[in-house]
Amino acid sequence: MAEVEDYEIIREGEAEILQLKKNAVFFNPVQVHNRDMSIAVLRAFVAKRKEEHEALANKRNKSHQENKHSETSIQNGEDASTSQPDEMDVVPEKDQSQAQATKTPSWKVTRELKPPLVLEALAASGLRSLRYAREVDGLGKVVALDNDKASVDSCKRNIKFNGASATSKMEAHLVDARVYMLTHPKEFDVVDIDPYGSPSVFLDSAVQAVADGGLLMCTATDMAVLCGTNGEVCYSKYGSYPTKGKYCHEMALRILLASIESHANRYKRYIVPVLSVFMDFYVRVFVRVSTSPSEIKNTPLKLSYIYQCVGCDSFHLQCLGRSISKNSTVKHAPAIGPVVPQECSDCGKKFNVGGPIWSAPIHDQDWVVSTLAGVKSMKDRYPAYNKITSVLTTVSEELHDIPLFFNLHNIAGTVKCTSPSLVMFRSAVLNAGYRISSTHVTPLGVKSDAPWDVIWDIMRCWVKIHPIKEQPHDSPGTTILSKSPTIEVDFSRAGAALSKAQTKKVKRFLPNPERHWGPKVRAGRKITSKHVSLLGPEAINSILNGAVSHEGGNGAAPDKAAPEPEGIKDDEPSTKRQKTGDDEQANEP
Questions:
Q1: Is the link from the previous residue into 338 a cis peptide, with omega within 30 of 0?
Q2: Which pTM was predicted?
Q3: Residues near 576 by Cβ (< 8 Å), separated by ≥ 6?
Q4: Domain assignments of the chain as residue spans, ordered by start
Q5: In the CATH hierarchy, which fold is given to the domain comprising 406-498?
Q6: Closest Cα partner for 155 from 169, 170, 168?
Q7: Strand 188-193 to strand 118-120: parallel, antiparallel, or no bridges (unpaired)?
Q8: How many CB atoms lie within 10 A of CB 99?
Q9: Is 37 exposed, middle or buried (0-12, 13-18, 19+ CB in 10 A)?
Q10: Which of 92, 162, 388, 407 is deepest in the core (most CB within 10 A)?
Q11: What share of the chain is helix, strand, coil (3-state, %, to 5)?
């Protein structure tokens, strides 16, 4: 039985939790960015859902009025004798007025919009669900799940600790989230999956649990897998093979979206991404899920393979399908390809092939703008206000219809020249008649609809102005520079070379607030010297010396009699998680 002094009170937003000082139930303070972004999108969803319901009711009313007008016109043309009511059918004026006052016409009857139901599949301490219940107005029930008894006990304790505002809305269950979601199809308006690692094993059940038009929020922290370090593992989990490139974090988002779409299609459902972001050490996507057997036929139009040159930074996308319009019908057919020759036309090297990835837009511009406006109007209610506004601001300025990006320093490195400034390069692209923007993933990332021959022409002209040393004749840069530019490049300052945020000097890429800002040790694990990169040398030393670490709530209290230098003794509570073949449901709340 834990004593009072074994707990510490952690406050985030309007919620408070009692957290054991030892690493029995997972909690990561870094995920405040994740939780704040989720609350911002959830508030936007509640407002958007209400607007859509009102628009549907107005549409029905308008349709009825048009039908009534047409019926009146037809009746006016009929014989007057047929329009006279039968004496037996006449209703007294008093009774008629009472009937009108008590009975609503059938065309006015619209299904009442019920408060949205929220499911957090991997709750751990329950902090995320508590913040939803206490901070987001208009929510109905919030259900928190976990398959670890210590986590569910902690969650229930925290629900009581937060008083009536939490107990009236929130409930916690000890259950396998996958089984629970499969047995509650289309029941929840919002489903949140935020696992420790890969969400792949939860996706199939999650897309079935979301109601039509509902919101699925999903996090993936296995970035080494998604970014190409373990390509074969990525294919086994997500059904896509990643390529290595500077765009890898955006590619991770697109692989995750493609995987969710694939799972949804099996049940005649499809997704519409409203916001997809890379933050800190993970990717997070927000998608709406709907049912339409006809719409899923368009899925191949939203997916593409990647051809990545192994010599230079150029990449090309090959769509999986195409649509053919004939008269009033639309037919679907395989795409015509390949879009590239056997060797790169710029440097002569071979291509690696990856994918399929989601190549349609990963954001909804209206959602991003409305979410950003909502965050700014409630600044005091977001602990990570600066971070999420910087991310949303950068996302709002992206070219949403351009998949992936390239790195300005990398293309300069390919031709071995000094990199032009971002403003000069953006100006050159704009003056050539193409669009260009930054990306929220990295400050040096560039999105553009300019073809690669134009990009390399700009670099060729730049090298003419800024000569370089002679390079090996077989290098990709030498091959690229051996060709003459086909366009005249103008490096003069363009009016749109700076984004609106840059013009207003809005901070877009913030440093980490503290050292070792990243993932923490999984709940129940021994903390040893190998975790120094996660917790820092000070925390590791204090643990190995038998002291209690307070850094991020992820320290562990070792047995004081333990002489072993490896860390915590194995007499931890029996509820600590055991690693299994499946991903554990330990989760940052």
A1: yes
A2: 0.83
A3: 24, 150, 523, 524, 525
A4: 4-27+509-587, 406-498
A5: Phenylalanyl-tRNA Synthetase; Chain B, domain 1 (3.30.56)
A6: 170
A7: parallel
A8: 10
A9: buried
A10: 388
A11: 40, 20, 40
